[in-house]
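A common beginner's mistake is to predict each chain separately and then try to dock the pieces by hand. The better habit, illustrated here, is to supply every component at once so that their relative placement is modeled jointly.
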Amino acid sequence: MSETDESTASDSTPVEGAATDEEPSSAADDAAPAESSSDADLTELVEDDPETHTGDDGARYAPLEVEGLRKEFGGIVAVDDVSFDVEEGTLTGLIGPNGAGKSTTFNLITGMLDPDEGTVRFNGEDITGFEPHEIANQGLARTFQIARELEEMTVLENMMLAPKGQVGESLWRSILPITRGSVREQETEQLERVWEVLDFFEIDHLADEYAGNLSGGQRKLLEMARALLTDPDVLLLDEPFAGVNPSLEKRLLEHIHELRERGYTFLIVEHDMDLIMNNCERVIVMHQGRILKDGTPTEIKESEEVIEAYLGGEV
Amino acid sequence: MSVDDLRGRFEGLFERDVTLVLAVLGTIYLAYILAGVAFGYELRGQLNSIANLTFYIGVFGMLALALNLHWGYTGLFNIGIVGFMGIGIYVTALVSKPPVAEGGAAQVGGFGLPLFVGVLAGVVVAGLFGLLVALPALRLRADYLAIVTVAFSEIVRFTMMSRTFQTFTVPDTIDLWLFTFDPAADTVGLGGGGGLILNYTDPLEALLRALFLWEPYLGFVAFVQQNFISNNPKPVIDGVVYGIVLLVGVGLFYLLLSRTGKSPFGRVLKAIREDEDVANALGKDTDRFKLTAFVLGAALMGLGGILWYSGRGSITPPSFRPNITFFIWIALIIGGAGSNTGSFLGGAIFAGLLYEGPRYFKNLVETAFELGDAPRNFGEAMAGFASLDPMPFVLYTLDSISQLRLVIMGVVLIWLMHNRPEGLLGHRKETASSVDLARPGSGGSTGNPAAADGGEEQ
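With all components supplied together, the output reads:
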């Protein structure tokens, strides 16, 4: 194939290209955790979103608001009147025993399921009933409980898939000689970012590997890296530590904390009570489809209901 | 780009694709030429045999490539290929056949438009039917799409045979809202069970005329007649040249589809094949991608059908039975779904060995061993075993080799499924990107292997 000189043939500017050169968010200037062995600079990854800058009037801006969410599966109420919001720049944990409705809530928020009642608002817009891809394009990215990699695609292909607004996703732009140059240009720029994120998550040595050959932990890393490349405001992580060994768990947590300091917002579903208690500013406890308690880790630990319904039941 | 760099590129190319394709094609052609020598073919016979082989390599190569877009890339289980092929050639016939009044023996005429208009119309209409099938069906999961497509291809075939659509009388003037026109056609239709006589300009002639090569071509034919083949060489040369045209067509299909594959678009298609929910969660409107891919593939299948049948004197509905669809599937499975080079190789190997091969094998054995007449039925064939004489059975088997072809294909398919389900080139990394994904600024494409890895629990 003779595509060698096409990249120079066209000089049109790709739509998304400028985004990577934007000013880094101010949060990025904070000191990174000392443990981070990566020398990758993530500042360029963070989009400068005007909505993320709130005044110092105390109340933090909540990009994600859930109100009165309800979902039934053939008579069984999986999620019942669930309301909460996720404040910007926080790590919010959603915990509860098996079958509490955590994953269903996730699926309702991200459009994989349609709620029977209730609304989901994201950045002030009602996104209830939107298609998953529309929600993702609003800036709400998710990972899956069981890491779902695109197995017969390489790690690099997995990563290159994620960025939004790729001009080459139009068939005609990709095949026509005149426009293919701009596609190549954009992909080249995108590639730099992809490598930065690979470095950040320290999976760059796996770049050419098929995603299906990765270990469970590596898949979790890849999935989070991939979600990050969609430039989300809020990341919803569905059990990111399930099946991950302690040392990788520690690394994942470091990554999450570092990203949070850079302005990302996280909502994490997790089984592990201690992990959530030690790392989240705010914890939402679900039980039998309902919200049992919503508060700081200290409040949750002292709550009689929670101990009875959740901890007490388990011990 | 330096000379070394350029050479490196070409060497890489040779290592990967071109060598393999040329080696396989060379082997097949050599085998056919040797078989021709064994049969004692003159030049004319050899050319005929080569033209025939090239024809099937061309059409199966193209159709396997088109199917690869559906199945290999997007994971769309289309088993209605022949339906799109049929639509392509029937629409071409309807548009380009001359009206009955000028058409000689034909009972059903067409609109008498130039052939290239017909081909274009055939491709577009095949694509539109692809849209029609895909719109409701793509919301269903894989197996249901398969049922819808195979049903669709049978509906197409029954429509071709139907008496209702056999002939229509076209009114002298057609009054459309904005304009009125006077079609040349008098009687059009699908011809029913008798099919359609393709009495338009010979497609090769139409193509060569369009390229202003018709006169030189006739000169060349005359030259061959004087020097090599004295007795009417034109049909033979036509065949060879048409074969070459088909191979050029394959090249264009390959170019188009590898560009489609090696792009962000192709990357999303692959992602849909692997896990549609993930693609969706990453913000890709998967329905749109599936629809586009399905329509493009269907249009290419229509073109494949046109190129397959347009050179024939006539088309009849029985040519469009689902077995053609399964031939193309076998070709794709041999070559390896997911790889464009593999798809073409699969098409070539299928055409050379499984589709045309058994017949040549039979002729070869018969020429070599001067065998007698074959038994007329299975009973007689088995009767030989009573006197421990296997010859009647062998002869019977050879005699029925065209029917046994399907059995051979089945055996090959089962063997492949067990031993090499990914096909010849299926699991190769045809990276879905328009650029090299190596780390920018570094030579190799792997990162620093010394970096900490996340694979502790392996």
